[in-house]
Each structure stands twice: as C-alpha cells, then as structure tokens.
Amino acid sequence: MAPLQTSASINRRRFFGTAAGALVATQIGLVAAAHGRTSAAGLPVEGKMPSLTGATGWINTAALAPADLRGKVVLIQFWTYTCINWLRAHAYVRAWAEKYKDLVVLGVHTPEFPFEGNVENVRRAARDMQITYPIAVDTDYAIWRAFDNQYWPAFYVVDAQGRIRHHQFGEAGYEQSETAIQRLLEEAGARGVNREVTPVVGQGAEAAADWTNLKSPENYVGYQRTDNFSSPGGAAVGKSRSYTAPARLPLNHWALSGEWTMEEGLAALNAAEGRITYRFHARDLHLVMGAHARPVRFRVKIDGALPRADHGQDTDAEGWGTVQEPRLYQLVRQSGTIGDRTFEIEFVEPGVQAYAFTFG
User: Fold this and answer.
1) What range does the domain containing 347 cover?
2) How far apart are CA 127 and CA 258, in angstroms?
3) Cα(219)–Cα(210) distance, rounded to whole angstroms?
C-alpha cells in the first residue's frame, strides 16, 4: 500500500495486493474483537455508525442520516472512481446489491484527485458504471474523518441497530464480508437468506488482477509523488520544458518526450506529439488522465509495435483511443505471456493531463 498526503494532511492509502489488505484488516479485526461485544451472529460490535452530515451532496437519494437507516443492514463503502483497487472490488459490491434485496448499499465517494471532487464528474461516473444505490459525495473528507478511515476501498457492515459489526480494507476478504452481511440480515429477521458465496467475475477494468505477474506498483505522474522519472535532466517543476526519453528504461522507470509541464499532481502536455514511455511488468496497464479543453487522440504501442490482441478496453487493436472525461483509461490488457514490456503513448494533440499509472 502507498501512503498519500493531501493539503489537509489526511493519510490515505490504497491496497496493492490481497496479502497486505488481508493482514491489516485481520489485525484490526482482532483488536475490535478483543475490545468489542460479540452477539449471536458471532460478529463483534465495533462501534456506532458515525454521522453522514458532512456530505457535500447526494446522488440517487435525498440526504440520509444514520437514523434513516435504522432497522436496515447497511454496507458502507468508501471509494473514488479512478481507483483501480476499488473498481476491482466493486464487482463484488454490485453482485451483493443485486442478490440481497434487504441490504442497503451506501457509497461514500471521497476523492483522490481534484477533478473527482466535482459532483458532476462523480454523477457521470456513477451513471457510466450503472450505480443506482445511494452515494454520499464526501468532497471535504468529513465522513472519511468521522469513520477515521484511511483506505480505498474500505467496507463497513452496519447492523439494524446502527452498529458497525464488520469491516474490510483492500482487495481481500470478500467471502468474510459476504458472510457478515448474511449473518446480520438473518439477525435482523430476514428470511430465506442465501448462504452460498456469490461467484463474481469482473469485466474490463473490474476484472481481478493477475497477482502472480504483477510486478509494477502504482506510480504518479506529478512531481510530488512520482518514482523513477528518467528523462535526462529530471523534472522542471512547474515550468514548460522539452523532455526526451532515454534509449532504454529499467523496469518500473518512465520518461516524458515533448513539451510538458510537470505540476505537483499531474503532467500537462503543451504541444502535439508528446509521449510517455513506461517499462512495466503486468497484464494490465491503466493511466488516469483527462483533457483540458477538448478530446485528445492518442496511440499506444508495446515494445514499439501495435498492441493487436493486447489492447485495453479504451484502445483498439491499432492502438488508437481518445481522452475525454477525466477517469481511469485501460490501455493494455495482455493476452499472452507476461514479461517486461515497454509501453508508449503518443498524443496527437496538446491538452492532455496525466495523473497516475496503475497495473493489474
């Protein structure tokens, strides 16, 4: 997992593997069990559900408070729509929402990047992903702080009396979370609860990572949090500069080519035909990016060749794609043997803003 710092000094983390997520969640769960009360459902009482009053907006519902949810079992999930870890976990949330009709799913959208704090961007993302359950827009991190949360994704299961009875951080523990939902539904009086574990197969960016072959960690493109930036001369912070890429890149190193401005949280392309090159080892490669004023066309190559069968959800076999709204773009999904590969993306027009690479 990688610590992230905001201007408000909030410690935020993503999980980059099931082992890390499972370990931390298990440790915290053991502490909760030691200090909480355990009911007939076999789940500790971890505390009262905090307030939702800090939400800056609501999607798919009028404003909700804990009192409005009393008598219902509630799954609260913290997410941000460009997070690949949450996207992969959301396949499970969607399946549970469809299966358990007595379960209330509540999304708390707490942004990582500034554009994710725009409620219209969240609304569009929810519509594109066909999310119909209630969403609290947590742009100011008030609900995040109330829960003392530190992770995307994070799940909290609340019983019918408004008490947190289970939590899970990261891409792990899906069976345990679903079992907790089942037990609390039965505890609340629901009949005929299906106790089988729901089979989930995510599609597109929601597909489970190929953990065996995942050897490239998330990396940011802005100068504040990037690692292994390899363009000669380094970054010219906050200034437009002509960059070049070295002839060869070590694994997990990257470089810019063309006229770019590297800012604190992003790199902005100032002239046509700018490129980003990245040496990676993973089945999937994603890039969070947006366009400043109008759509920007791009072309992807892998080891200097067109991707063909290895193209991602947002590119075609010839490598072509278009950046429009700010979001995560899946650019590579390899179909064959996974090894160290060199990724290159060239933008036909200026105006793109690149934020972060993630892998799967």
Assistant:
1) 211-359
2) 35
3) 18
- The structure tokens listed for 91 are 């396949």
Contacts of 216 (CB under 8 A, 6+ apart): 251, 252, 280, 281, 282, 285, 357, 359
In this structure, are 311 and 236 located in the same domain? yes
Q: Tell me, yes or no, whether 201 and 280 share the same domain.
A: no
| One domain for residues 64 and 103 | yes
Query: Cα separation of 108 and 95, whole Å?
Result: 18
Instruction: Please compute, for residue 135, the number of CA atoms within 13 A of its CA located in the half-sphere on the CB side.
Output: 24
pLDDT in tens, 110-124: 999 999 999 999 999
Contact 49, 66 (CB under 8 A): yes
User: How far apart, in whole angstroms, are the C-alpha atoms of residue 22 and residue 24?
Assistant: 6
Give the pLDDT confidence of 235-272 residue by residue, as tens digits: 999 999 999 999 999 999 999 999 999 999 999 999 99
| Cα–Cα dist 54/119, whole Å | 14
Together in a domain, 190 and 226: no
Residues 16 and 165 in one domain: yes
Examine residue 153 and say whether the peptide bond preceding it is cis (omega within 30 degrees of 0).
yes
Q: Clarify whether residues 199 and 51 are in a common domain.
A: yes
Q: Which amino acid is at 98?
A: E
**Angstrom distance (rounded) from CA 194 to CA 191:** 9
Q: What is the pTM of this model?
A: 0.90
Closest CA to 134 of 111, 103, 162, 161: 103
Which residue in the block uniquely carries the two structure tokens 């399946």?
Answer: 95
What letter represents residue 101's amino acid? Answer: K
| Residues 274 and 217 placed together within one structural domain of the fold | yes
* CATH value at residue 313: 2.60.120.260
Q: Which structure tokens are listed for 148?
A: 């003392």
Asked if residue 235 and residue 163 are part of one domain, the reply reads no
